[in-house]
Amino acid sequence: MRLNQCQNFHDFRRMARQRLPGPIFNYIDGAADDETTYRRNTQAFEACDLVPDVLRGVAQVDMSVSVMGQKLALPVYCSPTALQRLFHHDGERAVAAAAGKFGTMFGVSSLGTVSLEEARKISGGPQVYQFYFHKDRGLNRDMMARAKKAGVQVMMLTVDSITGGNRERDKRTGFAIPFRLNLAGIAQFAIKPAWAVNYVTHERFRLPQLDGHVDMGGGAMSISRYFTDMLDPAMSWDDVAAMVKEWGGQFCLKGIMSVEDARRAVDIGCTGIVLSNHGGRQLDGSRSAFDQLAEIVDAVGDRIDVMMDGGVQRGTHVLKALALGAKAVGLGRYYLFPLAAAGQPGVERALDLMRIEIERAMKLMGCRSVSDLQRRHLRFR
Ligand SMILES: Cc1cc2nc3c(=O)[nH]c(=O)nc-3n(C[C@H](O)[C@H](O)[C@H](O)COP(=O)(O)O)c2cc1C
């Protein structure tokens, strides 16, 4: 399959699967336990029908939104994801550049493979820095200071990963960082020599956000030990309140699911929340963010920017979330498979297809701007 033949998520996924060694494809594609939540995330959109208006004069549509103080040309952004240079040698550079071209926001993960400073220079668009809460409070403070100095606009603390999810596909293949592949896993790499040549002929794989803390050579700390040894499962609302104060700018929590927690986020001064179950990769059986959206928008939507992610594969999925009151919608695997398939041109093609789908669907819904999308445009089965 070639890039210009890719028309949708499924095509990109197929192309990524062809290109990537099995353990890496399954790291992206996989989720926790029985992957029920992963499947449910997309199914949730399918249980909701659109009810269009017609004859509304939709020659021009405005897809822009304002979220967390940022103006985005599209109502979607690239959610932060780990290890992108493992999927394609350009990794975060490709995603930062593509997001910038489309006038939208992108996230750099604490487990990113390009420094947040370099990503900042590449993209003209707004940047999120996603981080986890470490036992070492000094490290937390240093990270925030570093992000501030680099000009990052939005801090995003992920709160659903206090411990690693049970990713059984990774256990089967032996996927870990540093690599600790089993024989079947090694064989999978051997049959994708193009990926392997690319990997070894580009700069050394690093986690620049955690330089000095996580050793990619395999000595000091693997990623799974990063989660178990360095992150603080005792993190509390008081800890986060102190961070929000220290940052003093746009601060959101990613992985909020309950109304109670959404209210607390408002109380401690957060400016945004992302309803998310981490793409089904953490707590299997967790509700989909889309199903939980209306309740949370009703409770706090007038006081905080509510975003959501999980399972978004189509422009119509985005429209449904916006109609329920989301301010913007995060994309994960939707841009990761194109990244793996074709680097920056892949991400650009995926964002362009999404832009075209959103524009077409808005016209077909009789909506000239995102604010025209209302709950009356939706019926749940
Ligand atoms: C391969 C992969 C790596 C991810 N890494 C991170 C991460 O480092 N930090 C984080 O907050 N979320 C991470 N996520 C979750 C995404 O930000 C997002 O919440 C999720 O992918 C949305 O679901 P979707 O993939 O169905 O769109 C990751 C997701 C994937 C698929």
UniProtKB/TrEMBL annotation:
Q: Which residues bind FMN?
A: 80-82, 109, 130, 158, 254, 276, 332-333
List residues binding glyoxylate. Answer: 27, 132, 167, 278, 281
Domain called FMN hydroxy acid dehydrogenase: residue spans: 1-381
Q: Where is the active site?
A: 278 (proton acceptor)
Question: Which GO MF term does the entry hold, naming one?
Answer: oxidoreductase activity, acting on CH-OH group of donors
The enzyme's main class, written as a single word, is oxidoreductase
Query: What cofactor does this chain's UniProt record say it requires?
Result: FMN
The enzyme's E.C. designation: 1.-.-.-
| Keyword Oxidoreductase on entry | yes
Asked if the Swiss-Prot or TrEMBL record annotates the protein with the keyword NAD, the reply is no
Q: Which residues form a coiled coil?
A: none
Q: Which UniProt keywords apply?
A: Flavoprotein, FMN, Oxidoreductase
- Give the family per the record: Belongs to the FMN-dependent alpha-hydroxy acid dehydrogenase family.
What is this protein's record name?
A: Alpha-hydroxy acid oxidase
